[in-house]
Amino acid sequence: MRKPRVVVLGAGYAGLMTVTRLQKQLGTNDAEIILVNKNDYHYETTWLHEASAGTLHHDRVRYDIKGVVNTSKVNFLQASVEDIKVAEKKVVTDQGDVEYDYLVIGLGAEAETFGIQGLHEHAFTISNVNGARQIRDHIDLQFATYKAEGEINDERLTIVVGGAGFTGIEFLGELGNRVPELCKEYDIDQKKVRIVCVEAAPMILPGFDPELVKYARAALEKKGVEFSIGTPLKEAREGSVLIAKSEDEIEELKAGTIVWAAGVRGSTLIEKSGIENMRARVKVNLDLRAPGHDDIFVLGDCSLMINEETERPYPPTAQIAMQQGETCARNIAALVHGKDQLENFKPDIKGTVCSLGEDDAIGVVYGKKLTGVKASFMKKVIDNRSLFMVGGPSLVFKKGKFKFF
Amino acid sequence: MRKPRVVVLGAGYAGLMTVTRLQKQLGTNDAEIILVNKNDYHYETTWLHEASAGTLHHDRVRYDIKGVVNTSKVNFLQASVEDIKVAEKKVVTDQGDVEYDYLVIGLGAEAETFGIQGLHEHAFTISNVNGARQIRDHIDLQFATYKAEGEINDERLTIVVGGAGFTGIEFLGELGNRVPELCKEYDIDQKKVRIVCVEAAPMILPGFDPELVKYARAALEKKGVEFSIGTPLKEAREGSVLIAKSEDEIEELKAGTIVWAAGVRGSTLIEKSGIENMRARVKVNLDLRAPGHDDIFVLGDCSLMINEETERPYPPTAQIAMQQGETCARNIAALVHGKDQLENFKPDIKGTVCSLGEDDAIGVVYGKKLTGVKASFMKKVIDNRSLFMVGGPSLVFKKGKFKFF
Fold it and tell me: Which BP terms in the Gene Ontology apply to this protein (chains A, B) (predicted)?
């Protein structure tokens, strides 16, 4: 009898968690496990804002997949997924086709630009290690060029961040810390630099406790961030953005750097696959399977789950993605072992902390509101916990964050 | 009686040497000394190729002027010189006019583009700290963008260096060392990177011993440098250069980075001043004064002196500039002390070493040919000697190069 084949797409939080749990729960004779990922490394999506701002080197936000995967039980295929052929139970990659018995889709998110003109061409997004390096180097070059051309174009030093959600705010916090370093590096008067956050919604960090939001805004303003709130970004151009200040008033803001951090959607491969979805996210069953597809699990940013208490979707967080990975692994192990009673996924939200730079944060942990050093400490505990869950203490030792105070 | 005022323009090798010697030879009551420089730091022009390639941080190639100048004897004015009004014996700067009794012009060199179309717009030059930072960051961004856009445009990784003279060759040597680091930093296959040196003359390093030139070329080729020799660069465009491969054949070479390192001229301020000059350089008298101007000394890259043995001009080197500074200081001290017999400048050329990266070099020192580790060692001795001449052992300790092997 042929061993069933489990194919996991994506080595993000969800996919990697699934694989590292599956490799413990399944014996070599139980199933064949294949992990497919574009890069030979995993990166911490929730740390990318640091690599993008240049406050943390990108090698600190990634680690080798082969270092955490048991290669005697898991075959790692470095390949780009090009198509998911549900009817044929196979995945098309640039390294050839891969057939599956059980499929786990953890392909992560893509930037959602809501059809805003010019964003794709003129704005960066904080989406992966390659993009993060590009943002960092672009900002460096703007500062260098400003100086080299004789300080004639102050707008080179303006950084526009579109979006005051989680990613936007965390990136602004890092920029607030990075700009003084950049000014020192390039002999530039810090007064010349502007960091402007443009947000369509009437508030920053929607869903966060208002008191914490107030703290966050004041902390970022102290670091030099300007906010333009309730003012949709209408268009991005070469070197500027158009902002709707009111119904009739459009302002052009010149900026050397434009970063779009205002939204994510699931993978376009989901849409292409024909699996029922909403903005490329699959509203999964309670056992994390795609409706109508008993052999397909969808996790992380590609999945959509409604929180019954709030009647709103759970946010696409690393915390939930990792918990989904654990449940998914147990459910696949059950299927492989011939059981048809699967476990329902129940998120256990321990808390949410939003960093405001290395030295400051806000958050709610186990129901308790935190700010400043305490919140910043908890943020690092959470970041280290992600490493621990996947790679144990040795990974925490290698890549962890220990500059607590 | 009013003290005579000595104004020194430029804190390069020549100007700074003049000032640090003058402050020892003149008492506070003898003369007023004013040093005018655009930046508050001196930079080692002969190390800029390292900062440009990114192999040495720019803070290692510069030091504070106030750290080496005796501020109780020398007034330092941070200002950009805008005009030299010879008839009125005054210098116009962006911080106001400065009158002089004795003037020392050590304003350094500017890039000479020989009227080649597009060079000014599309090529970088290794001319100062600001420019060096820009080249480094531009190359970084090209590598990052190559990766972020999906490795579709290999030409981003091509670096064209125009000129196989001293600066061009030294820069190529650093690039040869830097590229493997860049490939590691950006996860790029080194085979994709091209470093191409384009030179109009039929040989590299004209004036150097042919055996050493052969060594240099082989060493650089081993580091991945391609040479296109005897092929003038005809035009620089956005993202490419045109190279005359023969009389009838023009080749377009696409390149993400174009650096022009093929020639220098004196300062345009010299031309503007009306002082007799050739390509902005003044053919000075033996006592280093400008012909017809008994109160003006011209040193370094702004000066031109014929070597009577070879009947060719001495090359514009740091070694000669510093020696000129010493002679100039003695001559000014003599004038201030009422002597009219000035000393003639005699260059004492101890040797010339051309670096091929941190780990390799060629050179002739005290008449002896050197290559490899020995030459590389001598290069660092020479670099440290420049520091020692201006700032003594403490400056060598702070900024010196000690990674000898």
Answer: aerobic electron transport chain
